[in-house]
User: Which sequence fits this backbone?
């Protein structure tokens, strides 16, 4: 009953005309930008984050959340129709694009839309029941436990975003930690790595790094590859038959369950969830033989998981203050910019914000379903904008976005510098997402690390004697050992196959 | 050049850039850490990962490293020029500069199209100024 009461309280806040408008704008803009080639949820949020500075706190967060799932939906549209994926819509490319090739684009988009709605709704039930309970658990966490949790987060995000090259992800996260230490040390007041430049005393702005490493580096890469995006010109028939509709529901429910669970884990989130749901469909669906060649189940399951995970990934952020992936790290930045520290106290201190956000997620879902699904055929005309027109506009928005953080044009130089850094990393095959996570969590890691060592009088035993940190470190170590053994096995297999090929030649 | 080798060298360079200055701050002890301790520890780990990559590069197949510096430098020149012009003159001039310079990196160049893009972006800048209170000298 209390949950219903809380949800009613949330709807009371989310259903104000102003917040409804922010939610609608967020969903629409997110979808529109998400449709654009080269812009996923992460770059969309980093691009639009500064635009929310002048909006009241609850409206701004509702709008950003709307941008997030709008962008995800937009991504799945571009994946299904054009096979242009982003991190959260890789699986949609498989069956979704096959359905497009069979002339069933409308059905694929409808399945994705309805499944996202189901996934989102299930996840909101999980969010409203689990988040307060997890908030209680978070009080058990001491400084050493936080350190262990952050380390595990680095490994998981590094592993997920770099496609299995955990060591690259870890290296990038640690480089992010180093960048995060630029500026004034909170404990001693000493200025670190500022090169005696006054504007570095407060550290580097997150937006400069995010825009530089994602938007600008991505533009340069697209220009290098001379990517030509063919405009979409197929016909779209949206409404499915009853038998087709019946196939969507069980897959969407299975996907929702997988997504809700995987969204909770550090390093999880939509990227992992969609693969989990797809694997599950391939194993348990009645039509599993068709999956891979354009089956509704292949689209519905992953879309539901994607959306469910996108929502439940707010739970670790809002209840323990640890973002589990790069998008959530940006959301954390948005909370902090608005003067709110997500963590165990957030639900108690700002109930209107928490429950308002939860309620607005469901409203956002309705907007996506009602506005975007029928509008998709018009939205696809965005693809007709050639890249040579699009990229100067994106650059302009990067400049305005960077400027609007501190009303300082000098910040654009930092953004440009990180554009170069991001480009070099991209060319070196190093993913920038863990870097952003490291940058945000770095100061928190340092603070907790130093605090833990002060408590233990300099002894590292505190990390293994406390049960939470000991178990988290054990998981981290197991993960590490598993990776190293997998690498060693691969290397041995390569060595074994090399002479065989020579013999064959 | 071997991608893995350069990756390792880049990480070692970053570790040195942060690790050496960190030594100049007070390092302290673990029970009473100074401002230099944590960056020093992290730099050591980054450096170690870099060294591991350099060693691995000796044993693994060489992946060539594709670098095209032209486009990224045109884009960066556009951004830096935008900041300078917007600071000392106005945003309209900066937009015109940004559009005309950055599109040099595109596959085809059209002055007419650039003028149209400029017109739209200038209109957006005016709208942002009017509705979101963007604090820039427009004209």
Assistant:
């Amino acid at each position: 009953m209390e949950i219903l009461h809380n949800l009613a309280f949330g709807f009371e806040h989310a259903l104000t005309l102003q917040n409804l408008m922010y939610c609608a704008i967020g969903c629409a803009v997110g979808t529109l930008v998400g449709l654009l080639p080269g812009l996923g949820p992460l770059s969309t949020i980093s691009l639009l984050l500064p635009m929310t500075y002048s909006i009241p706190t609850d409206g701004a967060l509702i709008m950003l959340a709307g941008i997030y799932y709008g962008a995800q939906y937009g991504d799945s549209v571009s994946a299904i129709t054009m096979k242009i994926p982003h991190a959260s819509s890789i699986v949609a490319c498989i069956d979704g694009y096959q359905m497009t090739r069979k002339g069933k684009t409308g059905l694929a988009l409808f399945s994705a839309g309805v499944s996202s709605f189901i996934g989102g709704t299930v996840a909101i039930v999980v969010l409203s029941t689990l988040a307060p309970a997890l908030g209680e658990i978070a009080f058990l966490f001491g400084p050493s436990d936080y350190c262990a949790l952050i380390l595990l987060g680095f490994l998981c995000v590094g592993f997920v975003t770099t496609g299995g090259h955990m060591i690259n992800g870890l290296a990038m996260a640690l480089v992010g930690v180093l960048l995060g230490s630029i500026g004034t040390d909170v404990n001693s007041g000493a200025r670190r790595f500022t090169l005696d430049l006054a504007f570095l005393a407060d550290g580097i702005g997150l937006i400069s790094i995010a825009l530089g490493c994602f938007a600008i580096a991505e533009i340069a890469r697209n220009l290098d590859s001379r990517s030509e995006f063919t405009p979409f010109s197929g016909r779209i028939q949206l409404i499915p038959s009853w038998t087709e509709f019946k196939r969507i529901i069980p897959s969407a429910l299975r996907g929702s369950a997988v997504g809700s669970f995987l969204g909770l884990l550090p390093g999880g989130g939509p990227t992992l969830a969609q693969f989990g749901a797809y694997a599950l469909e391939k194993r348990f669906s009645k039509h599993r033989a068709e999956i891979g060649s354009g089956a509704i189940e292949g689209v519905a399951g992953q879309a539901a998981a994607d959306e469910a995970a996108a929502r439940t990934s707010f739970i670790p952020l809002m209840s323990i203050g640890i973002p589990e992936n790069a998008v959530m790290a940006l959301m954390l930045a948005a909370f902090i910019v608005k003067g709110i520290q997500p963590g165990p106290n957030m639900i108690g201190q700002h109930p209107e914000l928490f429950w308002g956000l939860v309620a607005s997620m469901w409203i956002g879902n309705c907007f996506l379903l009602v506005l975007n699904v029928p509008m998709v055929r018009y939205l696809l005309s965005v693809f007709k904008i050639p890249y040579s027109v699009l990229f100067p506009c994106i650059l302009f928005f990067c400049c305005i976005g960077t400027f609007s953080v501190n009303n300082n044009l000098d910040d654009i130089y930092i953004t440009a510098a990180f554009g170069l850094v991001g480009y070099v990393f991209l060319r070196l095959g190093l993913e920038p997402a863990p870097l952003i996570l490291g940058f945000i969590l770095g100061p928190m890691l340092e603070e907790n690390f130093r605090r833990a060592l002060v408590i233990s009088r300099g002894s590292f035993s505190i990390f293994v004697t406390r049960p939470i940190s000991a178990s988290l470190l054990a998981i981290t170590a197991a993960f590490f050992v598993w990776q190293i053994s997998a690498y060693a096995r691969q290397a041995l297999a390569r060595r074994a196959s090399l002479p065989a090929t020579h013999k064959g030649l | 050049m071997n991608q893995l080798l350069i990756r390792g060298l880049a990480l070692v360079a970053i570790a040195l850039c942060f690790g050496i200055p960190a030594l100049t701050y007070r390092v302290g002890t673990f029970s009473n850490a100074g401002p230099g301790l944590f960056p020093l520890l992290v730099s050591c780990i980054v450096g170690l990962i870099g060294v591991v990559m350099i060693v691995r590069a000796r044993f693994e197949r060489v992946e060539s490293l594709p670098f095209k510096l032209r486009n990224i430098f045109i884009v960066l020149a556009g951004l830096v020029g935008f900041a300078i012009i917007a600071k000392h003159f106005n945003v309209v001039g900066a937009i015109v500069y940004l559009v005309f310079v950055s599109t040099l990196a595109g596959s085809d160049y059209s002055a007419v199209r650039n003028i149209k893009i400029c017109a739209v972006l200038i209109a957006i800048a005016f709208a942002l100024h009017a509705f979101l209170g963007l604090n820039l000298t427009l004209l």
Notes: Chain B has a mean pLDDT of 87. Chain B is about 70% helix and 0% strand. Chain B touches chain A through 69 residues (CB under 8 Å).
